[in-house]
Every structure is written in structure tokens, then in C-alpha cells.
Design brief:
Blueprint lengths: L2 E6 L9 E7 L2 E7 L12 H4 L1 H6 L8 E4 L2 E4 L2 H18 L5 E5 L10 H9 L3 E4 L5 H10 L16 E5 L3 H4 L1 H12 L3 E5 L5 H5 L2 E3 L6 H14 L5 H7 E2 L1 H9 L3 H8 L3 H12 L3 E5 L9 H14 L10 E2 L11 H5 L8 E4 L3 H7 L7 E5 L3 H4 L3 H10 L2 E6 L4 H4 L3 E4 L8 E3 L7 E5 L12 H11 L10 H9 L9 H7 L1 E3 L19 E2 L3 H5 L19 H6 L2 E4 L22 E4 L1 H7 L6 E6 L2 E9 L7 E3 L33 E6 L4
Helix pairs in contact: 3-20, 4-20, 5-14, 9-12, 9-13, 9-14, 16-18
The structure holds ligand MGD (2 copies), iron/sulfur cluster and molybdenum atom.
GO molecular function, one term: oxidoreductase activity
Keywords: Iron, Iron-sulfur, Metal-binding, Molybdenum, Oxidoreductase
Cofactor: Mo-bis(molybdopterin guanine dinucleotide)
Length: about 675
């Protein structure tokens, strides 16, 4: 008899959907949306549905593997754990615990996935990665401006007059915002999309504004110039609740609107018109993450925040500079779970430069890399260097569900469970503020074990078993401790499956900001305390004709590598079936200039590497722009990160994945 159970999507995504999962004969047979979920309301995307395939796939890793003479050999769990524990103990006794690099990302939104950090802290403190490939530049930017990065609750959107979707590929990456946009449009709320690509969201917009990639900060500066020229700014807000406005004014005075128009490749008329839209309050801004993956990414988000601030759109229903919603994750007892004080030693590599740092590390050199919830060989920039670094380290341990490009490089591959095979809570600090409960629904195939089981076993072998001597219930209760007063308990969550977290629904409505001055800061004291000048700037991407004219002559096209429609990063390509062809999407002018046709085979290259694929001419895109979706495995023609740079963003915490110039030419199919 088939059974229907409620569950939750574990994927790293804006939406954090509620599921209805059908189980038959001990197997997951279907994944659908839970129509009682207050935000996701029964609709889910193909990536969520495909979790059925991911769970049942014959490609699942079933046994611990060890590489011997270049070949993977099946070994027992005891052998794998004993050998890894011996190596960890030896490293600790000889060169010190920071000779271990913990390379991870956030492929699974389960709260107990953070126990890897507890393991490494209790072990003594390893080399950790800091910053984020994903959203690091913008998070830091909002911390400088507001003191934190908060979004309005999803249903607040109906209070807007205008909605600006700025660099977020909503129809593809954030489907429940897309649903709400369509509803808002029906109510007469105006929708504007600012993006170099004419994507599915742009098609639904009242107006699409194409912009030169990486130039959004300048565009925001242009709008601010016009708002001030026309006297449309919110004087009360500026005078009472902001710091550093005079610095902003002198910055805006240092450039003309004509120059901004030339650099952004947006006409002055459109800039003026958008200034009027911002002044016609409330205007909500929904920023995406693509546009901050540039050298100037932090400054870009800061200028857009400043635009929302001077136009009076902060702290009011229907407004907001919505980028991320960190208050969601901040609701849980993170320190109790991860025990940061147990670290005796520490070293940090930026997540962008983890490979270069590994290659040059000394005192101590990296002896072991442990990879959890990540596929760095595909996802980390400059993959040529990543491959070199991972191949150079004596022991690489990868906890995985599938034989990814990274797992192929490992010395030990430890097979892990998928979400329906273990119990956890799921939440996302990107969009809505509900936590979802995900029960264990089926048993894991073969000898696959949860990450938590692996940490528990290793901790016992290394003498800190007591730090992991908790039941699932106890772990989950530990994370909910700060929420008890709000009535959120494990029992209630198990019963209700999703619960609303006690967060600000209209952030900053009381105008009390979490910055050092307590105000919105155009000039950031936090930035200054970190050794920067804290000022806003008219900054451009590193790889642009404005900054590097010679490079721009050799490599005339800007390469974006946006998130794929049917895969969450690298997680689904091997399950899609059919023959996968790497698609090189190009702006129409490139096709005209080079006489390219759809289906032509081309190589795309720069000094860092080369990728080959088939031309697909976009109907509309900003001139000289190319896109290749990210996440593609080596065996399917990837990774596009062979082309991207590992430079860090202006504030040091974000990636510059889209700040990437390339050239392209047709070649013969081989
Ligand atoms: N289908 C799908 N959905 C996903 C994911 C996935 O892999 N697949 N991943 C999830 C994760 S982890 C994340 S971080 C989010 C990311 O969600 P998004 O922020 O929506 O995704 P991106 O693909 O980074 O880029 C979004 C948009 O930015 C535009 N863009 C690029 N450069 C610029 C620029 O300089 N200016 C402007 N204005 N726009 C620019 C791109 O053209 C694209 O339309 O998506 C989540 N959802
Ligand atoms: N060029 C380019 N590169 C990018 C991006 C881009 O837009 N362009 N986007 C960046 C962004 S936004 C992000 S968030 C990162 C994502 O980077 P990653 O998180 O590294 O990418 P994923 O492909 O989501 O997942 C990594 C692996 O985690 C495994 N996994 C899933 N669940 C579990 C689990 O429970 N336990 C363990 N041990 N493993 C698990 C999956 O099988 C998968 O192979 O990529 C970044 N890289
Ligand atoms: S991937 Fe995102 S949109 Fe798709 S089901 Fe999961 S949470 Fe929902
Ligand atoms: Mo991400």
C-alpha cells in the first residue's frame, strides 16, 4: 500500500519547499508539493521532483571506497574509518590539526549538516574556508549598510506599487517569488527586470532594462543623481537615520549622467524614468546573487541599498532592499551545535582561493582534505588549479552520494544518505522564514550512512565520542533551544511539519539598524574597522575595458555562468538522461559579427582555460554577453569554472565568478 508522507526539500535554493512524498514498498516513488505549506503552496520544481531519481538511482555510492594504485576498491566501514582516524591522529600529533583542510559548501540545507563543523572544532580546529562563492560580497555589503542582511516576508509584496527584480533569475531559481510576481502583476503592481539576459522573468515584466554586466552599481548611482536633482529624496529618513550622506553626494557629483549612461549602456532617459519609479513609493527591490559575483560586487549591492535608502524604501511595507534573510538561520542555536570554542588552533583560506592556498601552504602544509556537501572540482573557480591542488595532497576524503568529479580525485569516498533517508530540519536564509521538518522515510541503500553517523564514528575513534553521544531527537532539540519561548518545539514541529520563525517581517521598520552608529551607513564604520575606507565608489568589474583595456581587446566577450534550469548546480546532470550537449548561449551581435549559426561547435577560452560546446543564439541579450550554465560535470563537457577566476570581491568575502572575459571561435566537431 502506497503511503503519503510530508517532508521537505533539502536543496540549497531560495524556496525551501514543503513536500508530499509517496512511499511504496519501502521506496520513494513520487515527490510532489505539500499544498498546506503556507509559502510554497503545493508547487515544487523539477529539481525537487528529481529527488526521487536521486534517491533510487543505480549510480548511488553504496560502499566505502579506497583508491589503491589509481583504482577504487571496496573496503569495509571499519577499515575506512580506522584508517582515516589513524591519519587524523597522526596529523594532530606531528604537524598539527590545521594540516587538514575542510572544504565544504551548502549542498544540503539540513541543520544537522553543520555537525561537520562540530567534528573539526572538537578535533582541535582545522583549516577552514571563509567567505562564499554564492552570496559573500552582498552579505558583507548589507552588513556594512544595515548591520545585517534581512528580507521582507514573501507576502509583503502585495503592498508594493513597483517591484524591481534586479539580477535575480526568478522564474528559474525562485519559483515562489515568480508566482507572487504574477499575482502582483494581476493586481496592477508594476514589475521591472534589470538583467543583461532577457530571461523568462523579463518576458513577464512591464519593462525590461538590459544593462552591461557588472555595471549595476553605476546604474544605481545614476538613479540617485536623478532623484537628488529632482528633489525626490526622502529627506527625513536621510537626516534622521543615515550616516555619511555627504560622502555619497560628493561621489555622485564626481560623475555625469552621460558618463554613467555610456558605462552602463543604459540610456539617460531610462535612468531618469527608473529614478521616478523608485520615488513612487513603495518600491520593492529583489536583488539576485549573479550581479555581485564581480570584483566590484560588494560596492554594487551597497549602491543599490543606498538607492533604496535615499528613495525612502527602507523599513516600509512593500519596500525593502531584499537580498538575503539571515534572520532565519540566526534563529537556531548554532554555537551549541558547532562548539566553536573547542578549537585550539585555526587557519583560514578564502573559499575562492582554497586551491592556490593549498598549493602554497606551509607551517603546516595541507596533508588531508575532507570534502562535505560540496563538489569543489566543478563549483570552485579556476578548476585547473583546483584539480592540481586536490591531486597534490596526500589524502583526500570525500563524503558523497555519487561519483562526482571531486570524488574521482579522492583517496577515500564515503557513501552518504540522501535527505529522505534521515531526519532533519530544513530552512533557507534566502527568502521565506518557515522551518520545515523532514522525517526519515526510507532506509539507505547498500551501506550508505548519514554524515552524522560518520562523524560520530570518527569522534569515538579519536577520543571525543562524548561530544557526539546524542540521539537525533537530542540534536534537533539542541538547535531549537532559543525558539522554545516562541512555542517552537520538536514535538510541535513534528506534528505541524512547518512553523513560522519569529523574525521581523518588515525589517528595519523601527529604523534601528545594527551598524556601529545605529543608522543606515552610506560610509561604513564596519568597513573602516576592517581596514577599508568604508566609502561607496564608482567601481567597475576587474575584467572590463574600463579597468583592463588590453585584456578586453584579447577577450572581447563577458562570460556569465548562471544557474541551470534543471539541475541544482552539479547535482542533477547525471540523472537527466539523453545526450547532454554543452550549450554556449550568445548575444545576437556575436553571432552576426562572427557569422555563427545555432548548433555551431565553438571553443570558448581565456588565459585560464577552455570549454567547448554548441552555439545557441539568444533572442535578446546585452551585446557581447555569453552564458554557459554552471554545474556541468567533466564527462559532459564541463566545468565552466575552467574559465573563471578565483579573485575575491572588493570586500574580500565573495567570488568574482561572472567577472570573466573570454574569446570564442568556431571549430570543427571532432
Ligand atoms: N534552477 C536552479 N535554481 C536555483 C539554483 C540552481 O542551481 N538551479 N541554485 C540556487 C542557489 S544556490 C542560488 S545562489 C540561487 C541564485 O539565484 P539567482 O541570483 O537568480 O541566480 P544566478 O544564476 O546567480 O543569476 C541570476 C541572474 O543574474 C543575472 N546577472 C548576471 N550578471 C549580472 C549583472 O551584472 N547585472 C544584473 N543586473 N544581472 C546579472 C543573470 O543574467 C541571471 O538572470 O538560485 C537557487 N536556485
Ligand atoms: N561558474 C559558476 N560557479 C558557481 C556558481 C555559478 O553561478 N557559476 N554558483 C556558486 C554557488 S551560488 C554555489 S551555492 C556553489 C554550490 O556548490 P556546491 O555546493 O559544491 O554544488 P552542488 O552541486 O550543489 O553540490 C555538491 C555536492 O554535494 C553532494 N551532497 C548533497 N547532499 C549531501 C549530503 O547530505 N551530504 C554530503 N556529504 N554530500 C551531499 C551532492 O551530491 C553534490 O555532489 O557553486 C558556486 N559555483
Ligand atoms: S529546489 Fe527549490 S523550488 Fe525546487 S522543490 Fe526544492 S526548494 Fe522548491
Ligand atoms: Mo548559491
Amino acid at each position: 500500500m502506497a503511503e503519503l508522507r510530508k517532508a521537505a526539500c533539502p536543496l540549497n535554493c531560495w524556496d525551501s519547499c514543503g513536500f508530499h512524498v509517496t512511499i511504496d514498498d519501502g521506496k520513494v516513488v513520487k515527490v510532489e508539493g505539500d499544498e498546506t505549506h503556507p509559502i510554497t503552496r503545493g508547487k515544487i520544481c523539477g529539481r525537487g521532483r528529481m529527488l526521487e531519481k536521486r534517491t533510487n538511482s543505480e549510480q548511488r555510492l553504496l560502499y566505502p571506497l579506497k583508491k589503491i594504485n589509481g583504482e577504487f576498491v571496496q573496503i569495509s566501514w571499519d577499515q575506512a574509518l580506522d584508517e582515516i582516524a589513524v591519519k587524523l591522529r597522526k596529523i594532530k600529533q606531528t604537524v598539527g590539526t590545521t594540516a587538514v583542510l575542510h572544504s565544504h559548501d551548502y549542498a544540503n540545507n539540513g541543520i544537522l549538516k553543520n555537525l561537520d563543523q562540530r567534528f573539526f572544532n572538537c578535533y582541535g580546529g582545522v583549516t577552514q574556508v571563509y567567505g562564499s562563492l554564492c552570496w559573500g560580497a552582498g552579505i558583507e555589503a548589507q552588513k556594512w549598510d544595515f548591520g545585517n542582511a534581512y528580507s521582507h516576508e514573501p507576502d509583503d509584496i502585495v503592498n508594493s506599487k513597483n517591484i524591481i527584480i534586479w539580477g535575480r533569475n526568478v522564474a528559474r531559481t525562485n519559483m515562489h517569488l515568480y508566482e507572487r510576481l504574477l499575482e502582483a502583476k494581476k493586481q496592477g503592481i508594476k514589475v521591472f527586470v534589470i538583467d543583461p539576459l532577457y530571461n523568462a522573468t523579463a518576458k513577464q515584466a512591464d519593462q525590461f532594462i538590459t544593462v552591461k554586466p557588472g555595471m549595476d552599481g553605476l546604474l544605481a548611482a545614476g538613479m540617485m543623481k536623478e532623484i537628488l536633482r529632482l528633489g525626490l529624496e526622502d529627506r527625513d529618513f536621510i537626516e534622521q537615520f543615515t550616516h555619511g550622506f555627504a560622502d555619497l553626494v560628493s561621489l555622485l557629483d564626481s560623475i555625469t549622467l552621460e558618463k554613467i549612461s555610456e558605462m552602463t549602456e543604459v540610456s539617460s532617459e531610462v535612468i531618469t524614468q527608473l529614478a521616478l519609479v523608485y520615488s513612487d513609493r513603495p518600491t520593492a527591490t529583489y536583488m539576485g546573487l549573479g550581479m555581485q559575483r564581480y570584483e566590484n560586487g560588494g560596492n554594487t549591492i551597497r549602491l543599490i541599498d543606498a538607492l533604496a535608502a535615499i528613495s525612502g524604501n527602507i523599513g516600509i511595507p512593500g519596500g525593502g532592499a531584499n537580498y538575503a534573510n539571515l534572520q532565519v538561520g540566526q534563529s537556531f542555536a548554532f554555537n551549541e551545535l558547532t562548539l566553536p570554542h573547542r578549537k585550539q588552533d585555526s587557519r583560514q583560506f578564502s573559499i575562492m582561493k582554497q586551491a592556490e592556498e593549498t598549493l602554497k601552504a606551509s607551517g603546516p602544509a595541507i596533508e588531508m582534505i575532507v570534502v562535505t556537501c560540496g563538489n569543489p572540482l566543478t563549483q570552485v573557480p579556476d578548476s585547473g588549479v583546483v584539480e592540481k591542488a586536490f591531486s597534490s595532497v596526500p589524502t583526500v576524503v570525500v563524503l558523497e552520494q555519487f561519483m562526482t568529479d571531486t570524488a574521482l580525485l579522492a583517496d577515500y569516498v564515503l557513501p552518504t544518505t540522501t535527505a529522505f533517508e534521515e531526519e532533519d530540519f530544513y530552512y533557507s536564509s534566502m527568502y521565506h522564514h518557515y522551518v520545515n521538518y523532514g522525517p526519515k522515510l526510507v532506509s539507505a541503500p547498500g551501506e550508505a550512512k548519514s554524515d552524522l553517523w560518520i562523524w560520530t564514528q570518527l569522534a569515538a575513534r579519536l577520543g571525543f565520542g562524548a561530544d557526539f553521544a546524542y540521539t537525533r531527537d537530542e540534536w534537533l532539540r539542541m538547535t531549537l533551544k532559543p525558539l522554545e519561548d516562541s512555542g517552537i518545539t520538536l514535538e510541535k514541529l513534528k506534528e505541524q511539519h512547518t512553523m513560522e520563525l519569529p523574525v521581523e517581517k518588515v525589517p528595519w521598520h523601527n529604523r534601528k539598524f545594527q551598524t556601529p552608529t545605529g543608522k543606515f551607513e552610506f560610509t561604513s564604520l564596519l568597513g573602516q574597522s576592517k581596514g577599508k575606507n568604508g566609502l561607496l565608489a564608482l567601481a567597475v568589474p576587474d575584467e572590463s575595458k574600463w579597468n583592463n583595456p588590453l585584456l578586453a581587446k584579447t577577450y572581447p566577450y563577458q562570460l556569465l555562468t548562471i544557474h541551470p534550469l534543471r539541475s541544482n548546480h552539479s547535482q542533477n546532470y547525471h540523472l537527466l538522461g539523453g545526450s547532454l550537449k554543452l550549450k554556449v548561449e550568445i548575444a545576437p551581435n556575436i553571432a552576426e559579427d562572427q557569422g555563427l549559426l545555432n548548433g555551431d561547435y565553438v571553443r570558448v577560452w581565456n588565459d585560464r582555460g577552455e570549454v567547448r560546446g554548441y552555439i545557441s543564439i539568444l533572442v535578446k541579450a546585452h551585446p557581447n554577453t555569453i552564458n554557459i550554465d554552471e554545474g556541468i560535470w567533466k564527462r559532459f563537457g564541463g566545468s565552466v569554472n575552467q574559465l573563471t577566476s578565483s579573485r575575491e570581491s572588493d570586500n574580500g568575502l565573495g567570488s568574482t565568478l561572472y567577472d570573466c572575459l573570454v574569446n570564442l571561435e568556431r571549430i570543427e566537431t571532432n
